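Side project, low priority. Logging it here so it doesn't get lost.
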Amino acid sequence: MVFSINQLNLHTIWQEFRISLKQFIRAHVSNEQDSEDILQEVFIKIHNHLPNLKEEEKLHSWVYQITRNTIIDFYRSQAKSQAKLLDSDKERLLQNETDITDEGNKNEIVAAWLKDLMEQLPEKYKEALIYVELEQHTQKELANKLGISLSGAKSRVQRGREKLKNILLECCHLEFDNLGNILDYNVNKGNCSCREIK
């Protein structure tokens, strides 16, 4: 989502990025408490430096660069406290794994479209995906909430994912690397609900 400078505040950014940032951090930091601490530190930095952001269209890449740097700082501090050097391969991975440019990380850009695309799903699939993918509940919790079997919940989530993927691929051409990361995308602006995020 693209915000105007006047719309930007910490609460707005928290609502927009909290879930995806938590997932991004957990992909690099295995300890849940450490990842929560890093997430809090990221939003402290965002709060402190938000007045310096001049171009709202660069918000996405700016937020993820702060997050990446905070993760690197975490590993550096861990290394110092344990009297050993930061694993250079680990740092290199963090710097290069998902190359964040001024246009933002392609995986994260496309992921940001998905909430809006979910609105096009039939209600039962939309409800299931929002509950599991966006609100981060388990499929077992979904089954309990809906009063259906676990296999039924799994089937609903799987079918919802397939339908969501079809909606995305109908309106956008995606190019992937051999690891499944998105290298580039082409939005069919004439018939697409995806929005380009710069």
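Brief comment: The helical segments are 10-26, 32-49, 59-81, 88-96, 106-118, 123-134, 139-146, 150-171.
Revisit when time allows.
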